[in-house]
């Protein structure tokens, strides 16, 4: 048995979470919202709407878009977007560690011992 949870930042609705963070990371890697969405198995239109909704709720731009031309279009994560992504990832690491400690304190010992007892009885 293990603990599972979902966490996100809320500001008049879901403003940022694991999925959006992954999308921004992929935009940073690929320099393209289209490619990032494709790598995640997400429709470009859905990724576009997601970014727009988050930017509206957060009050700042997450990506800068460059319209195509001779050198092609592209996207890059804004400094504010990168800052949010970094803080969110650090927050998630801390939350994971804290919840793991709480889980072990409240559940792990009693359920591990109970399972061992059950296994011994079967033999």
Key words describing this protein structure:
single chain, 123 residues, alpha+beta, Arc Repressor Mutant, subunit A, two-stranded antiparallel ribbon, two-stranded antiparallel sheet, 4 helices
CATH topology: Arc Repressor Mutant, subunit A
**How many strands, which pairing sense, and closed or not: the largest β-sheet?**
2 strands, antiparallel
The helix content, as a percent range, equals 55-70%
Separate helix tally: 4
Over the alpha carbons, how many angstroms does the gyration radius reach? 20 Å
Could you spell the SSE succession in H and E letters?
A: EEHHHEEH
> How many strand elements?
4
* Adjacency order of strands in the biggest sheet: 1-2
**How many structural domains?**
1
The low-confidence runs, each spanning 5 or more residues with pLDDT under 50, are 115-123
Instruction: Give the overall shape, derived from the CA principal axes.
Output: elongated
Q: What CATH architecture label applies? A: Orthogonal Bundle
| Spatial gap, N to C terminus | 22 Å
Highest CATH level, the class: Mainly Alpha
Class from helix and strand fractions = alpha+beta
The CATH H-level superfamily is Winged helix-like DNA-binding domain superfamily/Winged helix DNA-binding domain
Rounded mean pLDDT is 87
- The fraction of residues in strands falls at 5-15%
């Amino acid at each position: 048995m293990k603990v599972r949870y979902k966490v996100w930042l809320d500001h008049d609705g879901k403003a940022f979470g694991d999925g959006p963070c992954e999308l921004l990371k992929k935009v940073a890697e690929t320099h393209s919202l289209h490619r990032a969405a494709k790598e995640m198995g997400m429709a470009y239109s859905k990724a576009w709407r997601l970014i727009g909704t988050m930017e509206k709720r957060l009050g700042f731009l997450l990506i800068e878009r460059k319209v195509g031309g001779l050198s092609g279009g592209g996207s890059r994560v804004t400094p504010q977007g990168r800052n949010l992504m970094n803080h969110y990832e650090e927050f998630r690491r801390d939350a994971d560690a804290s919840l793991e400690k709480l889980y072990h304190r409240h559940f792990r010992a009693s359920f591990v011992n109970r399972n061992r007892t059950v296994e011994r009885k079967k033999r």
